[in-house]
Amino acid sequence: MSIHNEHLKKVEENITNQGRSESFCKLSKEWMVESVRNNYSYNFSWMGRPIIQYPQDMIVTQELVFQVKPDLIIETGIAHGGSLVYSASLLELLGGDGMVLGIDIDIRQHNREAIEAHPMSKRIKMIQGSSISDEVKNQVYEFAKNKKRILVMLDSNHTYEHVLEELKIYSPLVKKGSYLMVFDSVIDDLPNDLFVDRPWGEGNGPQKSVFEFLKTNKRFEIDKKVDNKIMISVAPNGYLKCIEDGK
User: Fold this and answer.
1) Is the four-CA dihedral 156, 159, 162, 168 of positive or negative sign?
2) pLDDT of 185-213, one tens digit each?
3) Which of the 8 DSSP states describes residue 204?
4) Hey, what domains does the chain have and what are their CATH numbers?
5) Contact criterion met (CB below 8 Å) for 78 and 127
6) Treating both helix axes as pointing N-terminal to C-terminal, what angle do 82-94 and 55-68 enclose, rounded to 10 degrees?
7) pTM of this prediction exceeds 0.85
8) How far apart (Å, rounded) are the C-alpha atoms in residues 46 and 51?
9) For residues 171 and 152, what is the distance between their CA atoms, to the nearest angstrom?
10) How far is Cα 91 from Cα 72, in angstroms, rounded to an integer?
């Protein structure tokens, strides 16, 4: 066995053991609660734009993008644009003509101007509107019609009904081997007092949407290897791997 293969085997063992460790899982959940209380995700930026993500999810996203090599990444939710810039920079490193399509119901002008002025803007297109509206859906499908490998990230309105509708709308665009990623599914695992000013919370979050979606859509499965690899994530049970193409 080569040194590289030995390393990969050890990594697989590490990931399996981590997922089985009750103490590690317990500590990770406790740390997650405290990190949310302290607004930890707001501490980071990517190439000058606030990204509002956890570094652990950023690293595994990079791994999946390299694995899939998408020619289109669709993101619902833009905020300051850091995630769009991050995805665009990964596509830039891969080469080719890959694009990022960002969707948000309210793209604030100062954010739009900063994103459009960014060096990675050449790979970014934005649509303003509700990600679950027919108008936006039609625009997205038109933009995606000639793309062969599409990866989707859902990170807009985190309520159960909204995310479930996004899953139904955008899942057909994802083909075998690619991913449909549902961010902030951790909401369902956190105390409700963390979301007193939000419409989502326990029993009304993305993870519930994922479980409901998977009851009837057998094209996707939760990639637990991702959860067990990073242990700390805003998207537990949210990395959905497409295991078969649609009919």
Assistant:
1) positive
2) 999 999 988 887 888 888 899 999 999 99
3) B
4) 3-242 (3.40.50.150)
5) no
6) 40
7) yes
8) 6
9) 8
10) 9
